[in-house]
Structures are given as structure tokens and as C-alpha cells.
Amino acid sequence: MIQFTIKQNDFLSKEIEAFSHTDYIGYDRRDEIENYPMYLLTLKNDVNRNWRESLLKDAQKSLLAALSSDLPEIIDKIEPENLTVCVVPRAKKENSYRKDQLLFKETIRIAVNKLGDDFIDGTQFISRHTNTKTTHLRRPIDDYDNDGSEPYPGISGNTCNFSENLRGRDILLIDDIYTENINIDEDMIQALLDCEANSVTFYAVGKTIH
After folding, report:
1. pLDDT at position 142, please?
2. Alpha-carbon distance 182 to 201, whole Å?
3. Are 119 and 85 in contact (CB under 8 A)?
4. Class for the domain spanning 2-138+146-208
5. Degrees (nearest 5) of the Cα angle 65, 36, 102?
6. Of all helices (H) and strands (E), which one includes residue 157?
7. How many CB atoms lie within 10 A of CB 68?
């Protein structure tokens, strides 16, 4: 596991302690990363892909293994009484996705409920109600309207619903891939702070390197 700091910027009012499972790089350079997390691409399961059920289950198993290893280690490092685990929602309204396109969040829910009292399931505490731009798509996809705004300060608060149960909690916010300067995660962290979370720690399975 890799430990790093998310820096304060126009999207985020203070530095945040963060962790990732592995380095990440674009698919076309995947051979540069040992044990490349291909399962993340499978679980994104974007519009024109229809993966076999067995492939999706294998991807879930790989993600579950990473979470089961890393999340207890995070608890040991930051020593909160417990952590409420939330997930950065996908870019479009949740009801616009098929069930098999939401397996990243579902796998996190499964992991949290297996790991015991140190973790609280907050995977339903954030939901997207307004589409935003899907930033990881490098080129257009046939029959896919990538509508919505690019990241701007406050976009999370304007496009997501946040549960009142966030107030006063120590949050572990999880995303699949963290890329510096995109600022999706920074803005979501700030939204949680604005919801009066006691603290926010961030975890991404993959952290983009250049």
C-alpha cells in the first residue's frame, strides 16, 4: 500500500491523508506496472462492453482481496475508533447504470460488512442526481452522450445527494483511481467536510503515475 498526501488547492481547503493500493497508468502502457489492476477496467464496465459474468466475478474477487488487505492497515495507521466507508459515485446519475456497472461500489459494501466493527457501511451515503462529464474517456464512445460539466469547485455539492448521517463521522472515502489535478476527489472530500464530517481519509485502488 502507498501513503501520500492530497494537497490543498482551489477545490480543497486543507491537506488530506491518503492511501492507494498500487500505481496506475493508462491501459496502453500497462506493461510498465507489475500486477496491473486490470480488474478496475473490468468493473468500470463502460457502455458498449458486456463482460461475461465469470469475468466480473473474478474482478470482484481481486478488488475484495485488495480492500481486505489495505483497509485494516489504514485503521492501524490513523487509529480512529471506526471509519464510515463512503464511495465516490460514478459520473452519471446512478439510475442510468446497469447493476453490473455498479459492482465497484457493491464490492466495497461487501468488504466493509466482512471486516467487522472497525468499519461502518456508508456506501449509500452519497448518490449522484445530476450527470457530470466522465473524465476517464479519452475518445468518444458510439451511442454514448458524455454530457455534464467538467470538474469545478463545488460540483459535488451541486450534483450529489449527501446523507445527514455523515455529520460527525470519521470518513474513509474510496475511489477506483486517483489522478492528481483532475480534482474530482478533492471536491468530493471538501463536500464531506462541508457536511460536517469529523474527518476524511482517502483511499484509491490505483494512483495514476505519469
Report:
1. 62
2. 18
3. yes
4. alpha beta
5. 55
6. helix 155-159
7. 13
- Residue 65 φ/ψ, nearest 5 degrees: -65, -45
Residue type, 192: L
Q: Domain residue spans in the chain? A: 2-138+146-208
How far, in Å, are 42, 65, 143, 177, 197 from residue 194 at the CA level?
33, 32, 37, 23, 7
Residue whose C-alpha cell is 462529464: 133
For the record, the C-alpha cell of 78 comes out as 490513523
Residues with Cβ < 8 Å from 25, sequence gap 6 or more? 32, 33, 36, 208, 209
Helices 103-115 and 53-78 pack at an angle, to 10 degrees, of 50
Cell numbers of 145, please?
Answer: 452522450
User: Which pTM value belongs to this model?
Assistant: 0.93
User: Which helix (H) or strand (E) covers residue 156, if one does?
Assistant: helix 155-159
In three-state secondary structure terms, 20 is strand
Name the phi and psi angles at 188, rounded to 5: -70, -40
In the predicted model, what is the mean pLDDT of residues 87-106?
92
The chain-wide mean pLDDT, for the chain, equals 91
